[in-house]
Design goal:
This protein is α/β, with parallel strands linked by helices and about 400 residues long. It has ten helices and 21 strands. α1 runs parallel beside α9. It is globular. It binds flavin-adenine dinucleotide.
């Protein structure tokens, strides 16, 4: 059995930065439990699927990113016993802690929709939602000869709610530029009732992108079955329960997502399995020495790395305060952002808070498609991610954190 003062579960966008921040504050005994030897910059996968960057540009060895001074426990957390400040790993290790930060990301449920798991990556079925399948998206877009290009969006919560439509806009732009647009239909089956949760950006997307580019949208429709042999997708109307059988030539599938199974059955999860934290302070609602952040948390905001950028300083401040015998006083306002790529060289930068109120960084209307914002997403935000977020440094954002 080993003991560490602070144990962080997950070396993803959230965990690495939190560990670095705690080390910066002079706490020396910090461990990160992380099974993977690679770290993925998932926001790049939209660009990989669109043929803008290579898949290799999204990955770095975990060993190069674990902050200096942290102990890397290369194993997966399996069971939590927060009443005794201890946990077990899949490899059978027992780890105890004074303080715990839980951020293992979310789980992709490929097997929840019949036909998807076997088909993804083959015969016109692709997905940006994993490193293994992301290259097949660009293969499909590049080799498309016309016909039905279908895109899906499952019931939330999912990570990066913009990603299912960003890849559709890139595909549409590519088909248009290659003289295929007249021969193709672009069809979006979206489980939500609107194209985006924030009214300002929903209007922008519908008026500037969806309508003028003749994208067909079916709201409140959910993929319930894939029939790869006949190249058909079955969607259920979430209002009436009726089903539609949609033939496809290519389909970009966004799988359903949920809290990781080991959290669902742990005392740390809420009824959905998400780490049950205060939406203001990120402290666990039942165990004051436990904190949660990122995709695995119950925070009722859109699950993005950009949100973690605003959550990180709040969590670090509150954790350090509690470690010093104080109260968690820093507050997170729900800030999140979604860089909505609307074509090659075009982007609407959505930024908003818990109240779905825009919280824009720039002094111009971010609801308009802009080349400058595309360059920001392509070049500046990745640098902020690798050099700022993962290293535990603060970067300006409009959130009040
Ligand atoms: P992750 O970064 O997923 O990391 C979780 C870590 O926990 C992983 O390293 C994993 O190996 C580890 N882990 C898993 N299980 C265990 C276990 N049992 N024990 C210990 N460790 C474990 N965000 C944006 O801000 N902007 C975007 O444009 C954007 N686009 C996206 C596009 C796509 C296609 C996808 C898939 C995501 C996108 N995101 C975007 C979302 C962003 O990548 C995530 O919100 C972010 O990575 C979440 O960080 P996290 O640390 O919570 O989880």
């Amino acid at each position: 059995k080993v003991h560490h003062r602070v144990v962080v579960i997950g070396g993803g966008a959230a965990g690495l930065g939190i560990a670095a921040r705690v080390l910066h504050a002079g706490i020396t005994d910090v461990a990160i439990v992380e099974p993977s030897d690679k770290h993925y910059y998932q926001p790049f996968w939209t660009f990989v699927g669109g043929g803008v960057v290579s898949r290799e540009q999204s990955v770095k060895p975990m060993a190069d990113l674990i902050p200096k001074g942290a102990t890397w426990i290369r194993d997966a957390a399996a069971e939590f016993d927060p009443a005794n400040n201890s946990l077990k790993t899949q490899g059978g290790k027992e780890i105890s802690y004074d303080y715990l930060v839980v951020c293992p990301g979310l789980q992709i449920d490929w097997d929840k929709i019949p036909g998807v798991k076997e088909a993804v990556g083959k015969d016109g079925v692709c997905s940006n939602y994993s490193y293994d399948t992301v290259n097949t998206t660009w293969e499909n877009i590049r080799n498309f000869k016309g016909g039905n290009a279908v895109f899906t969006f499952p019931p939330p919560p999912i990570k990066c709610a913009g990603a299912p439509q960003k890849i559709m806009y890139l595909a549409e732009d590519h088909f248009r530029k290659h003289g295929l647009r007249d021969k193709s239909r672009i069809i979006f089956y979206c489980a939500t009732p609107t194209i985006f949760s924030v009214p300002k950006y929903a209007i922008s997307l519908m008026e500037q992108v969806v309508k003028p580019r003749h994208i067909e949208v079916h709201f409140k429709h959910n993929l319930v079955e894939l029939r790869p042999a006949s190249k058909e997708a079955v969607f259920k109307n979430l209002d009436t329960g009726d089903t539609i059988v949609q033939p496809y030539d290519m389909i970009h599938v966004v799988p359903p997502m949920s809290a990781p199974d080991f959290l669902k059955k742990s005392p740390l999860g809420n009824e959905g399995g998400w780490v049950d934290v205060s939406k203001d302070t990120l402290q666990h609602v039942r165990y004051p020495n436990v904190f949660g952040i990122g995709d695995a948390s119950s925070l009722p905001t859109s699950k993005t790395a950009a949100a973690i950028r605003a959550q990180s300083p709040v969590l670090a401040a509150n954790l350090l305060s509690v470690m010093n015998g104080g109260q968690p006083v820093a507050k997170y306002d729900g800030y999140t952002s979604c860089p909505l790529i609307t074509g090659y060289g075009k982007l609407i930068l959505a930024e908003f808070d818990y109240d779905l109120k825009p919280q824009e960084t720039f002094p111009f209307d971010q609801g308009k498609e802009r080349y400058s914002m595309y360059l920001l997403k392509r070049y500046i935000i990745p640098a902020i991610y690798w050099k700022g977020l993962l290293k535990g440094y603060q970067w300006p954002h409009p959130g009040k954190a």
